Amino acid sequence: MDDVAILGGLFAIAFVAATILPAQSEATLVGLLVAGTHSADLLVAVASLGNVLGAVVNWALGRGIERLRGRRWFPVSPSLLDRATGWYRRWGRWSLLLSWAPFGGDALTVAAGVLREPLWSFVFLVTVAKTARYVVLAAATLGVIA
């Protein structure tokens, strides 16, 4: 498989994992790290970019929630969205540092859109959170940390 297909696949899985469809970008990243065919820095950068852009889709869905909330495909249940919105109201934009979390992280990114978080601060905080997750995962996989 060529580099474009491998890196494009990682980007796509990381993107999808942050949006409405279930996917496990962590497993893909670990597999590629173990294969050792690409630099860890490149893999972390590609996965982070895909995951952050997927989160921006959630932010945009949150911005248009009044038109989208009742749709069956909407990525967050009403109860989870209410919980995430409450969390977001309590902790503000800093709650986006938990956007990497497997349960509730995506709901926080939607809540940020609902509550009109500016895109620049959203992207900054989500990038920090999601990249840090991939860096820690890569370091653990490569034996840099135990």
Question: Topology of this structure?
Answer:
Elements: H1 3-17, H2 25-35, H3 40-63, H4 65-68, H5 78-91, H6 105-114, H7 119-141
Helix pairs in contact: 1-2, 1-3, 2-3, 2-7, 3-6, 3-7, 5-6
Care to describe what's here?
The protein has helices at residues 3-17, 25-35, 40-63, 65-68, 78-91, 105-114, 119-141. The protein is mostly helical and 146 residues long. It has one domain (3-141). It is globular. The mean pLDDT is 89.
Shape: globular
What is the H/E string?
HHHHHHH
Roughly what is the average pLDDT, rounded to an integer?
Answer: 89
Oligomer: single chain
Q: Extract low-pLDDT stretches.
A: none
Q: Considering DSSP H and I runs of 4 or more, what fraction of the residues is helical?
A: 55-70%
Specify Rg, calculated over alpha carbons: 16 Å
Give the strand tally: 0
Number of distinct helices = 7
Number of domains: 1
Helix and strand composition category: mainly alpha
| Beginning-to-end CA distance, first to last residue | 31 Å
Question: β content, as a range?
Answer: under 5%
Main sheet?
none
